[in-house]
Amino acid sequence: MELQLQMELVDGTAKILLGGKLDATNAPAFQEELKKLIGQDVTKIVFFSENLEYIASAGLRVMIFAKQRIGINAQVYLVGAQKPVLDVIKMSGLDTFMTIQETYNP
Amino acid sequence: MRRDIMAQKSYPAELDHLEQMLEFIDEFMVKLGWDRDMLFKIRLAAEEVLVNIIHYAYPEAPGKISIDCSTVKEGSRGVCIEIRDTGIPFNILEKPDPDISLPIEQRQIGGLGIFLTRQIMDDIRYARTKDENILQLVKNQ
User: Fold this and answer.
1) In the structure, what pLDDT confidence band is assigned to residue A12 with cuts at 50, 70 and 90?
2) What confidence score (pLDDT) does residue A53 get?
3) Which residues of B touch A68 (CB under 8 A)?
4) Going from the N-terminus, what domains does chain B have, and what CATH number goes with each?
5) Cα B45 from Cα B42, distance rounded (Å)
């Protein structure tokens, strides 16, 4: 399955809708998309992950990149992630800089 | 090590074939009765190793990756996934783990993959023969 990706920026909140598989084959394209947000005064980065079935380290790296390059002071949310995805996020220590929520509540 | 079920295939070491390689491993795991949660984790562990080979093992000419799945002992669902390449010698186990306690500003983005692989698998073994890297990923239960 391919990665499904939708992105919009509204009032400083970058809403990123993820679905399918985020792996080494599509992470570079995802990172290119996120680069569009650099310099846009993003204060919140929200990954809507309800339909994300799989994430590999290449995808985790893009999430780290998002925080480091788009807005080091931006708040990052991970919303609606399924348990296996959440497990990987926790295993790699990314939960320390993300607000993890079942439904989006800014 | 006794092995009563086996499956073996080889693929071009290219990103375009990654999905096929992972599906091959998935199918084997399903036959042994592993659940969805573990299929996810094994896919993740295998992907990290395979992508590493695809990116670095054959810097000059195209190469191959062989995957050999087997059970660790009769009647067990314990699995050994052996991944072989004939690329440059590389022991993934020598890579240091990233410091995941660092604040996000200082987090290194490399090394995360093998770190996850180590956490998921029960055992990882590396050997180099004259012309092959042999990596075994073992999950017992």
Assistant:
1) very high
2) 94
3) 104-105, 107
4) 6-139 (3.30.565.10)
5) 5
- In this complex, the residue of B44, B101, B113 whose CB is nearest that of residue A93 is B101
Q: For residue A92, which residues of chain B lie inside 8 Å, CB to CB?
A: 100, 112, 115-116
From the CB of residue A50, how many other CB atoms can be counted at a distance below 10 Å? 14
- Residue A2: what pLDDT? 84
* Residue at A93 is within a domain: yes
Per-residue pLDDT tens listing for chain B (141 residues)? 444 568 999 999 999 999 999 999 999 999 999 999 999 999 999 999 999 999 999 999 999 999 999 998 877 889 999 999 999 999 988 888 888 888 877 887 778 888 999 999 999 999 999 999 999 999 997
Return all residues near A19 (Cβ < 8 A) that are at least 6 apart.
A3, A4, A5, A50, A51, A52, A53
We report the CATH number of the domain holding residue A28 as: 3.30.750.24
Which residues span the domain enclosing A49?
A: 3-101
A21 located within any domain: yes
What's the CA gap between A78 and A100, in Å, rounded?
5
